[in-house]
Known about the structure:
Chain A is of the alpha+beta class and 208 residues long.
Amino acid sequence: MLGEGIIKGMVETARNCLGSYVSKDRLTTLQYPEERAPQFPNARQFPFLVYDGDDWEKGLRCVSCQICEKECPPKCIYIVKSKDKRVDYKGQQQFYPATFNIDISVCMSCQICVEVCPFESIKMDNEFELSNTDRFGGLLVHKNQLAKSNDHYRKVHPQDAAESDAALAAEVAKVQAKAKADAEAKAKAAAAKAAPAATPQPSPAAAK
Amino acid sequence: MQDMGALGTPLMYAFREREKIIDLFEALTGARMMCNYMRFGGCRVDFPEGWLAAAQKVVDEFPKFLDEYESLLSSNEIIIARSQGVGILSQELAVNAGVTGPVLRAAGVNYDIRKVDKYGIYDRFSFRVPLGDHGDTYDRYMIRMLEMRESIKILQQALKDIPAGPIIDPKAKLRGFRPKAGEAYGRIEAPKGELGFYLISDGGPNPFRYRVRPPSFINLTVLEDMCLGNTIADAVIILGSVDIVLGEVDR
Lengths: 208, 251
């Protein structure tokens, strides 16, 4: 019969339309601003910079090594290294980023910057409501907007944050152990210097 | 099919299923489209808890939705009238033009790289390659429907014996390696056709030459021959049935 196929399709549509009042499975849409779908625990949108402590400018973990800038596939990260150094979380003198911009209209959320960062300083955020009236300036995110606290990171990615905290603690412990060993070695050297040179130092030629 | 005026309902029904599949991607990798999941020697993260069961559920439910699309489209008289005998692609032309994928198979040429190369673990799965008789727009639509069913079959087999164990080879180097000087070509059967990557290395960290063989771009070259003799209104349907991705065509 002509029109049978069309009627079959219509029946299917009617079944879905009326079924959406009865069954939750058929109703697949959400009224977005009021209702929200839960986010997945490892959802990622755009990168941010982690800082420790209260002051974002002092606590930034980034040491401006520029690895992420080099590795970024669409080249959306722009870093200017500082001229001077300051003390970082490990107690060492380090550079810091004088400028750190990410153009999130170019960023493709690939997470490669996070993977290459040796200092656990750049991480992925799951903030997705980033619409802006300024197409160019509004989507070029500066250092002060990128800096978010470690607590924020713990909130968005609890599991990854725990791992990163553990890695940092191990790093700090290593640095402190090294500093202690250095201090001991220095003390020993000082003691050795104070004592008369009983054992003659082997000369480079002898060592060969 | 959406180019034919079947824009609303079937497309939106398909979006409903796409959403479920993309949710699986997001739960696993963190991103919906740019997954960045594959690595040399393995993949980036392991399954979160319950992911396999969720994937199994989507795969089990999918044939039901395919039946739904088919009841909407396959026997619809308007679609049959507008697509059967329209945009016929002959076997000789398809082979000579280098067309691959569902467009080639709809013309009746049995060429599926999953069967020809048996790359990856495709030799472990039993699946059939649907072939068309006439090479018209309706055949190309039908081939895609049948291929989805075959894909479900493959997924069922793959999910059944997915092994537990390490996800990545710890010896594999992720970046900064220097391949030996020489050339290589790797190809897979993508949804649109043969997706190939050709690389020449001169021993440095960056490739000397790198080219992607885009299936959509090459399939689109026969559009003119398929359109000749048909009306202008048919051109839209024929273009839709080639199923191009503009990212591949724009080069």
